[in-house]
Amino acid sequence: MNAIAVGTVKVPGATLRHETRGSGPVLLLIPGGAGDAGLFEGMAGLLADAGHTVVSYDQRGLSRSPLDGPPATSG
After folding, report:
1. DSSP assigned state of 67
2. Does 62 reside within a domain?
3. I need a labelling partner for 10 at 20 to 30 A (CA). Which of 41, 55, 65, 66 fits?
4. Are 69 and 13 in contact (CB under 8 A)?
């Protein structure tokens, strides 16, 4: 089983949380809708065990990727 490295990256207006595991060719797992990196928990481990570097993240303002302030309004 591969260890999970958790980190954050500062982007304009938010801090994104990401998870990386495994080694080899990089696969970026992008959650849809209101999903977060947790959606890929089982699959990411299997892909990492199969020889890939797997990167997943929580989308801006969702789950563990907080916004720096209140959400902007449109219009």
Report:
1. B
2. no
3. 41
4. yes
